[in-house]
């Protein structure tokens, strides 16, 4: 399976097709299992839970990729991968479910890209909570400049 190292690679994949992100042990296991288990209710969904790729908003995409990384705490063999397939419903989080018989793997997102996306998300959060709140104060100009540079640096690492 192809390894994805840049956000631009994902955007390119999503130009002519609907692409989903999924955190699991991979497509072979998902095809066998056929559906996802809701971690709260312990009920099965109609298909595999996934998230839509937003290729028109690269920064939203960067924040979306590491969102379900916590699943790795339960199973170290879980990773982030991209797929196409037929949507057959919605899971309890409001995300699409994909018919396991129709999935086609497109690539595995590298751990390096996930780490960089996490760093970008943290920088984005920091600037949203500090810059926006204090932007009008002249004494905060220096910190705002630093935060903006940090955000730009983390973005350039994944773009």
Q: Can you put this structure into words, describing what you see?
A:
It is a single chain. 40% of the residues lie in helices and 19% in strands. It has helices spanning 7-13, 27-33, 58-64, 111-134, 141-158; strands spanning 3-4, 20-24, 48-49, 51-52, 79-84, 87-90, 96-98, 104-109. The mean pLDDT is 86. The strands form 2 sheets. The protein has a 5-stranded mixed β-sheet with strand order 1-8-5-2-4. The protein has a 3-stranded antiparallel β-sheet with strand order 3-7-6, with no helix packed on it. By secondary structure, the protein is of the alpha+beta class. It is elongated and about 60 Å long. It has 5 helices and 8 strands. The protein folds into 2 domains: 3-109, no CATH class; 115-158. The chain starts with a strand and ends with a helix.
Which properties best describe this structure?
single chain, 159 residues, alpha+beta, 2 domains, 5-stranded mixed β-sheet, 3-stranded antiparallel β-sheet, 5 helices, 19% strand, elongated
């Amino acid at each position: 399976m192809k390894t994805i190292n840049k956000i631009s690679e994902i955007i390119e994949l999503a130009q002519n097709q609907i692409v989903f992100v999924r955190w699991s042990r991979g497509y072979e296991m998902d095809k066998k299992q056929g559906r996802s288990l809701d971690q709260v209710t312990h009920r099965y969904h109609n298909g595999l839970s996934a998230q839509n790729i937003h290729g028109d908003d690269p920064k939203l995409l960067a924040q979306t990729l590491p969102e379900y990384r916590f699943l790795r705490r339960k199973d170290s063999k879980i990773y982030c991968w991209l797929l196409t397939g037929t949507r057959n419903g919605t899971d309890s989080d409001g995300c699409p479910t994909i018919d396991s018989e129709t999935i086609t793997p497109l690539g595995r997102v590298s751990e390096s890209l996930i780490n960089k996306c996490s760093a970008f998300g943290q920088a984005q959060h920091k600037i949203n909570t500090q810059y926006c709140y204090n932007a009008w104060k002249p004494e905060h100009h220096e910190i705002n400049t630093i935060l903006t540079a940090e955000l730009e640096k983390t973005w350039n690492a994944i773009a």
